[in-house]
């Protein structure tokens, strides 16, 4: 039995980046041997085990072959006869196909270290084209390592085009696609993810609504300001028609807060840009739609998305909207309750008081 550290932990150590998760590969062992050593099996599709003390994942060396469409269309074979090289060749990129043994020696049969030095994202073997999810993964890695000067190798980009043209991207589940999109959006250069997808034809297959969009600068700005996922998603989708917004949200089953914010930005961003000129009634309608009284963070995220679209320019409308929300929230419901108002009558009276507060705010 030989145990190797593999994948991202090796890659990031060589890049001098922090290593968070460590993947372990076991060569020359059987399921029975692993269990005898106290490892607990957790893999449903192939043998993966949890270390009895650290809880880290250890996977048996395996090979795979294409057996169907999509990300899950593979048959795996794990046995003590599978070599380190045979396991590594099934991985996506050369920079992810390196291993370290227990003595810290680097095993690099597919020249990943050289590609790290050349800042290239290059596929390991032609089998890369069998897994459509790798189109999104490579685009995500391009977004992650863009600040270091990485680019996708020409021959890898060509394989990604072949996958896009094959229609295989349509076989990806919403959950798997969204997981890659979510992770890509949270990288330091998320706009690169979209640019790479566009360059290989993947964007027109997965998100055709964004083909003519010019929102990447806002997305980049959101990343620079370390905005949360919902704000980044809303920045990316800003300017789309309601039907296109709804289609993208539903296609990838985006989280509810992402869907809601994107739809609200689509509906109210232009109104927010004109906030100081809005009549108090129009301003109140917007605040009511956002439910700024119970969900203040959602309105703050909305303002942030509008600020990101200003691309670093001053956006005084943001402070104006914050002040308006505060004025509306400051209205005290207690006197209305003491006056005996309830139900619809209370709601109308409270709305009237908030309108007066916004009129005073605008006049100030």
Put the structure in a nutshell.
With 364 residues, this protein is α+β, with helices and mostly antiparallel strands. It is built from 18 helices and eleven strands.
Q: Helix amount, in percent?
A: 40-55%
CATH class of the domain at 1-118: Alpha Beta
Low-confidence parts? none
Q: Provide the gyration radius in Å.
A: 26 Å
What do we call the CATH topology of the domain at 1-118?
Beta Polymerase, domain 2
Mean pLDDT across all amino acids: 93
Termini separation (Å)? 77 Å
Binding site for Mg(2+): 21, 23
Binding site for ATP: 8, 11, 91, 137, 140
Binding site for CTP: 8, 11, 91, 137, 140
Organism: Pseudomonas soli
Topology:
Elements: E1 2-6, H1 8-15, E2 23-27, H2 31-36, E3 40-41, E4 48-50, E5 57-60, E6 62-66, E7 74-78, H3 84-88, E8 99-100, E9 106-107, H4 112-118, E10 120-121, H5 133-145, E11 151-152, H6 154-166, H7 174-185, H8 190-200, H9 202-206, H10 216-224, H11 229-237, H12 242-251, H13 256-273, H14 280-290, H15 296-309, H16 316-329, H17 334-338, H18 343-363
Parallel strand pairs: 2-5, 10-11
Antiparallel strand pairs: 1-2, 1-8, 3-4, 4-5, 6-7, 8-9
Helix pairs in contact: 5-7, 5-8, 10-11, 10-15, 11-13, 11-15, 12-13, 13-15, 14-18, 16-18
């Amino acid at each position: 039995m030989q145990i190797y550290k593999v994948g991202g932990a090796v890659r990031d150590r060589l890049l001098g980046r922090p290593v968070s998760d460590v993947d372990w590969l076991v060569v020359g062992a059987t399921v029975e041997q692993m269990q005898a050593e106290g490892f607990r099996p957790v893999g449903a599709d192939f043998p993966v085990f949890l270390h009895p003390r650290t809880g880290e994942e250890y996977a048996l060396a395996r090979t795979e072959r294409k057996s169907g469409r999509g990300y899950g269309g593979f048959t795996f074979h794990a046995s003590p006869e599978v070599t380190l090289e045979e396991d590594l060749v099934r991985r996506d990129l050369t920079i992810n196909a390196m291993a370290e043994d227990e003595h810290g020696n680097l095993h690099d049969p597919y020249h990943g270290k050289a590609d790290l030095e050349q800042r290239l994202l290059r596929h390991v073997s032609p089998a890369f084209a069998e897994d459509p999810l790798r189109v999104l993964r490579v685009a995500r890695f391009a977004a992650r390592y863009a600040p270091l000067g990485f680019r996708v190798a020409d021959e890898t980009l060509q394989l990604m085009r072949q996958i896009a043209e094959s229609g295989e991207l349509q076989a990806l589940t919403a959950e798997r696609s969204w997981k890659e999109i979510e992770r890509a959006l949270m990288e330091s250069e998320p706009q690169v993810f979209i640019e790479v997808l566009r360059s290989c034809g993947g964007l027109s297959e997965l998100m055709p609504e964004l083909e003519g969009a010019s929102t990447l600068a806002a997305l980049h700005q959101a990343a620079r300001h370390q905005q949360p996922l919902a704000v980044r998603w809303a920045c990316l989708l800003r300017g789309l028609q309601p039907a296109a917004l709804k289609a993208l949200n539903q296609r990838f089953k985006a989280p509810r807060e992402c869907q809601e914010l994107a739809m609200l930005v689509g509906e109210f961003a232009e109104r927010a840009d004109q906030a100081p000129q809005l009549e108090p009634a129009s301003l109140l309608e917007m605040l009511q739609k956002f439910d700024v009284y119970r969900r203040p963070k959602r309105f703050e995220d909305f303002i942030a998305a509008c600020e990101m679209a200003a691309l670093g320019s001053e956006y005084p409308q943001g402070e104006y909207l914050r002040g308006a929300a505060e004025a509306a929230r400051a209205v005290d419901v207690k006197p209305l309750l003491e006056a005996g108002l309830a139900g619809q009558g209370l709601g109308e009276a409270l709305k009237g008081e908030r309108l007066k507060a916004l009129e005073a705010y605008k006049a100030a």
